[in-house]
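Q: Could you fold this chain for me?
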Amino acid sequence: MARRIDVTGAGGVRLAAWDFADPPKADPEHHPGVLLLHGLMGRASHWASTARWLSERHRAVALDQRGHGQSDKLPQAALSREAYVEDAEAALEQLGLGPAVLIGHAMGALTAWQLAAKRPDLVRGLVICDMRASALGAASQREWADWFKSWPVPFATIADVRKWFGEDDPWVERPSPARGEFYAEVMHEFPDGWRPVFEPDQMLRSRETWVYDAHWEELAQVQCPTLVVRGLDGELGRAEAQEMVRVLPQGEYAEIADAGHLVPYDQPEAWRGAIEPFLERVLAS
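A: Sure. Below is the predicted structure, expressed as structure tokens.
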């Protein structure tokens, strides 16, 4: 069972963090810290399977980022990219995790590499999972707004959530049961049915920074060993992923077959097989 530990983020925001170590580990020399950062619309529980095997040798902590999971819901003005980075920085410092390995998926990966560039003293290694450094462009934001509007909310049952996102979503080329399970975890039962725990408008606001801005400069500033992981059918293309590896001073590359954007969900064993040797090398250096 993971223990909940609240963290105070930027501007005094209350953030829910989950320590998966059992029993609790407080020895950074023998149990190095790992901070897991979920993607947009995600939550800390999405890292449960990864955190469980990590906790055999590490102090694995997953963070519900602002506006997500059980952390504070906030006005759109409080969802800046800087605030997300400062929250992760606060979590490392307040929980005594640093210097830690940061493992981020999508938005969480961007937060991780921006923090690694800003505070190299807090980050000893980095795993970037399926996140682009290039700007996506305004069309992407319009498509996402239309996608949110297409959701048939409220869903009558949680089984309907799993079916729609796992099988019926017309906006997705690669439906899968894993995708249905992913979205089931971010739904809550209200009096009229099941709805997301987040506000879609806030998710659109959060993603503006990588829709309109590229983040190659911060990537090039990351000095620690970094593994770039992509699913073969994910959102990060092979050419861009390999260019990210080239730009990184200590970049490595891993590609996972039969995986889409939700790599740790789609192929948990292959995901572990890709990142575990990397973690061993980082911690042995």
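A (continued): The beta strands are 3-8, 14-19, 33-37, 59-63, 100-105, 123-129, 187-190, 193-196, 226-231, 251-256.
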